[in-house]
């Protein structure tokens, strides 16, 4: 038992040792005080006047965790959907246009915009699934390539027919205040985080306690066995990708109605929410209950790095370096698992 535990935790200790070593090296290069840097990191991630930085971390975590949940749903089914960025953008631009041009009371516009965003994300996920199931385009490639038309269509829409020309930027008009997601009293954190908490709870239940989640996991672990067992693999694939895309579209809508109140070109792409979500899922081995914690960790790394720069003059790009180390660690784990599986398969043959 102890040896098995050490084999599981050993790689984690190694990657955190690498991160710690890189931190020390960067601080040495920047001639920064270690104590001040650590204090600045924790203050930047969880402190501030009236806990303002903590709410910033939670706000960023809302979008990262949402995208991580989207990825987890598809990855656990063996569907390597890396088109979350396109689904996120599709949901965001559709939600923004509904919010700007749909007449009616604020609550109706908000509900319709979020629903439309989820439908747009689900449709974009379905496109990748249909290309995979009926045309034979590998999902990894098809979902990735669909990111680009989503980005460029959105860029065209906010740069030309639906642009708020007076703002001087490629963006839509602002959504009416009545349709904004409310803030928690006394904070700048919107209540969209509650939607992600609900989605996380439902995703955990779906993955661990439902027939659909069991079938999806079976397809992910042993697709040939799933087909031989008579599971409707094609329908399962399309349904899973639509669900994954709907969650990504929800995140795009929450960003529009809760954070930016309009759609600006690049606002969902440049922060790398989708790609950070992928890293967060892979880092915890797609364990459902750990995904929200992993997303919160990455959000804290990003906001804490900014605090370290303010307090100790350590470059905030350290967050990207730390993420790169984690990517290498995850890639090593995945490659090692695949190599072990190939060897075991060979030995069994």
Description:
The protein has 349 residues and is mainly α. The protein has helices at 2-29, 34-46, 52-75, 84-101, 106-135, 139-145, 147-159, 192-209, 211-221, 223-228, 233-260, 273-283, 291-312, 318-348.
Structure at a glance:
The protein is mostly helical and 349 residues long. It contains 14 helices and no strands.
The global form is globular
Strand content: under 5%
Estimate percent helicity. over 70%
Structural class of the helix and strand makeup? Answer: mainly alpha
- Number of DSSP E strands: 0
How many helix segments? 14
Indicate the radius of gyration in whole angstroms: 21 Å
Main sheet overview = none
Q: H/E element string?
A: HHHHHHHHHHHHHH
Quick check: average pLDDT? 87
Quaternary organisation of the protein chains: single chain
Unreliable parts: 337-345
End-to-end separation: 30 Å
């Amino acid at each position: 038992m102890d040896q098995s535990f050490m084999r599981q935790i050993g790689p984690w200790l190694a990657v955190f040792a690498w991160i710690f070593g890189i931190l020390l090296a960067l601080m040495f290069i920047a001639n920064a005080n270690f104590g001040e840097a650590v204090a600045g990191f924790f203050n930047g991630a969880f402190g501030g006047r009236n806990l303002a930085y903590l709410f910033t971390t939670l706000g960023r975590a809302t979008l990262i965790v949402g995208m991580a949940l989207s990825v987890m749903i598809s990855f656990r089914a063996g569907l390597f959907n890396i088109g979350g960025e396109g689904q996120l953008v599709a949901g965001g631009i559709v939600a923004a246009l509904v919010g700007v041009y749909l007449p009616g009371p604020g609550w109706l516009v908000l509900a319709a915009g979020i629903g439309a965003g989820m439908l747009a994300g689900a449709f974009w996920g379905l496109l990748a699934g249909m290309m995979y199931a009926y045309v034979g385009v590998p999902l990894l490639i098809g979902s990735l390539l669909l990111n680009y038309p989503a980005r460029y269509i959105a860029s065209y829409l906010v740069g030309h027919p639906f642009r708020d020309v007076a703002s001087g930027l490629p963006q839509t008009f602002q959504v009416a205040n009545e349709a904004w997601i409310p803030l928690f009293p006394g904070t700048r954190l919107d209540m969209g985080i509650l939607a992600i908490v609900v989605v996380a709870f439902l995703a955990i239940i779906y993955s661990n306690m439902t027939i659909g989640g069991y079938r999806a996991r079976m397809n992910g672990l042993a697709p040939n066995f799933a087909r031989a067992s008579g599971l409707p693999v094609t329908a399962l694939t399309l349904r899973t990708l639509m669900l994954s895309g709907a969650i990504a579209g929800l995140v795009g809508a929450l960003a529009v109605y809760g954070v930016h109140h309009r759609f600006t070109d690049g606002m969902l792409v440049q922060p790398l929410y989708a790609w950070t979500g992928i890293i967060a899922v892979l880092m915890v081995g797609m364990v459902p209950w750990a995904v929200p914690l992993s997303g919160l960790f990455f959000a804290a790394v990003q906001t804490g790095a900014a605090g370290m720069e303010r307090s100790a003059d350590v470059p905030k790009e350290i967050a990207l370096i730390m993420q790169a180390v984690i990517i290498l660690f995850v890639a090593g784990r995945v490659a090692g698992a695949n190599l072990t599986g190939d060897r075991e398969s060979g030995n069994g043959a």
